[in-house]
């Protein structure tokens, strides 16, 4: 983790306070998964592209209805589709967005039902599918992992993918080769 933070320019000011998370939980009307809560208070959002608690609250509003009631409904995804507040499946019931991937693509954290604590993302469906978009367990590639990952396992996968195991020789200064 230390190497990743150094590589990605981690900033200590990105730490999240317990008061900020408590405020978010009271605004949403539910308890956030413990792994997510602990990670944000220890490491914050820096270097991982995670949304701050304020951004989570703002992005968890449904564009169609303007409400956040969907967050407390049961989470369920079947064949890439979940129950959502929007016709485009932009926001899943029982989840909060934790990272924005651009152009209405999100990484979401399930916060209700048996899937609470698992990480999901909306993405383009595989070619030949009936729909253009689908929800899948978050991973580095669209096929990995097949099973949903918990929040910390998802972070570990990001770190393992992005941090080089050992430096390349051409990358080292000449005196260290």
From TrEMBL:
InterPro entries: Knr4/Smi1-like_dom, Knr4/Smi1-like_sf. SUPFAM superfamilies: SMI1/KNR4-like. Coiled coil: none annotated. It comes from the Bacteria. Residues 15-157 form the Knr4/Smi1-like domain. This is Knr4/Smi1-like domain-containing protein.
